[in-house]
Amino acid sequence: MTEQEIITTVNTALAEEFELDLDEMTPDVSLYEDLGLDSLDTVDMVIVLEGAFNFKIREEADVKEIRTLGDIHAFVAKKLAAES
Amino acid sequence: MAMNRVVITGMGAVSPFGGTVADLLSGLYEGRSAVSYYDALRQVQGLRSLVASRVQGIDPKQIARKHRRSMSKMSVYATLAASEAMQQAGIDETMCASGGLGVAVGSTVGSTEVTEAFFEDYFTDHSLERMKSTLFFQMMNHTCASNIAQTFNIAGRLLAPSAACATGSQAIGYGYEMIAQGHQQIMLCGGADELHPLTCATFDVMHAASTAYNDRAELTPRPFAADRDGMVCGEGSGIVVLESLDSALQRGAKILGEVIGFATVSDPGSIANPDARVMALCIRQALESAGIDAAQVDYVNAHATATQQGDIAESQAIAEVFEPSVAVSSLKGHLGHTMAASGALETIATIDMLNQGKLVPTLHLDHVDNDCAELNYIKQLSDVDLSVALKNNFALGGVNTSLVLRRYNHD
Q1: Structural domain count, chain B
Q2: Residue B2's pLDDT is what?
Q3: What sign does the dihedral B266-B209-B314-B31 (CA atoms) show?
Q4: Which of A84, B142, B324, B337 sits at a 20 to 30 Å CA gap from A69?
Q5: DSSP conformational letter for B360
Q6: Quick one: fold of A3-83?
């Protein structure tokens, strides 16, 4: 999966789940301050990403470090690379 | 201890007629049926009743995602109805956060649709890995009350009476008592339910659902009628703003009506079958609570769902307490049975009838069942001078509820 495919898949999945505007989903936006997500949404975000990429990430420590959309893109790319 | 008088200052309705009180009232006054054939009911094998009264055409996205994510349909209905009621009453953010404003809104159960979807997935591998964080909030029994309180930042009492078909009127009754006793100044009270095929199945199993009108859905249910064949399941939400008279007068709120009495009793004789004697006891207790005689009641808004036993028992109970001249009608012919919402939606309609001096007739009541007691059954829209009405609701599980409502006369 290319970097752009990862970005598109992440953004599309999160936009659908959290009713976000794709145009505003730039890598630097904060999930919390800018997109308004909270702790409940974070739980669901993990489930959405697991469904979109067919991997398990709930127990991974790096998930807790995610702050921005770009952090998600990087996290997913790293996870997929490790699995390939 | 002096009791506070309790008035209604706001009303909101999401009903099978639409998303507002105006939609509800126009459907009733125009004598329309909200019942239709519902093909999705065919998914339940053996289900014979294929008719329902469904809410259509509302936009859940009026509610912000942050609040909507923990809502199933019933909480969406309840929140939209609460919004309409609060807007009419002029309830602001300060009042919501004061602690003097509470919520009493119940449903029959939590969301069956959400519960079914969760277990359908869960049973594939018994894994919780796909379980969303907001699932519980849609399945819990106090989902409607909690979601209303969260949406509007309400900090007072929160309760969710659950008494099936008597839920809405019981919630109004409990809110009435809390305000009368001074525990709260203002309460959002009512009920909500969402239609699920298994709700219809529940009544069909007990031979209480209408089955003979699947090809002519708009002609059923037929309360009190000789050719009735059972009830029709519906959905929606009715919410009223109850308020102490002093509070309403102090802030100059428009007063729509008054709750002057309430009673609810258990019928331990049967968990399913109605008993006219216990129904009459409930009505008498409500009148006693209101401090009025039966002769002062102008109109009885009956529960009457069009079941064989229920309509007969209620008619006998009314005949036992009142003179035959008291006007009686049921709104189930128009609305179907909106379950936990019914008591509140019918209270809203009854308050408007008191104010308009108009009685909505029982739809489809061409020939009254000979086994029903002789009463003044309203068969056509009537102009009548009205002051006091009784609102009955009787539920499976042996729960009887009666409210006494009065037109507000600025006295």
Answers
A1: 2
A2: 75
A3: positive
A4: A84
A5: P
A6: 1.10.1200
In this structure, the answer to whether residues B225 and B307 fall within a common structural domain is no
What pLDDT, in 10s, does the model give residues B259-283?
Answer: 999 999 999 999 999 999 999 999 9
ipTM: 0.91
Domain positions in chain A are 3-83
Q: Which own/partner pairs from B63-71 qualify as long-range (CB within 8 Å, at least 24 positions apart)?
A: B63/B151, B64/B151, B65/A18, B65/A19, B66/A36, B66/A38, B67/B147, B67/B150, B67/B151, B69/A40, B69/A41, B69/B134, B70/B134, B70/B137, B70/B138, B70/B143, B70/B146, B70/B147, B70/B150, B71/B137, B71/B138, B71/B143, B71/B147
pLDDT under 70 in chain B at which residues?
1, 411
Chain B interface mutation, best of A19, A45, A57, A60, highest count of B Cβ atoms under 10 Å: A19
User: Distance of alpha carbon B226 from its chain centroid, rounded?
Assistant: 25
Q: How far is B199 from chain A (nearest CA, A)?
A: 29
B295–A contact, CB cutoff 8 A: no
Give the count of Cβ contacts less than 8 A between chain A and B.
Answer: 22
- Whether residues B133 and A50 touch (CB distance < 8 A) is answered with no
- Residue range of the domain that includes B328: 261-406
pLDDT at B410: 75
Closest CA to B193 of B376, B407, B343, B26: B343
SS3 label, residue B102: strand
Scanning B125-144 for CB atoms below 8 A from A yields 129-134
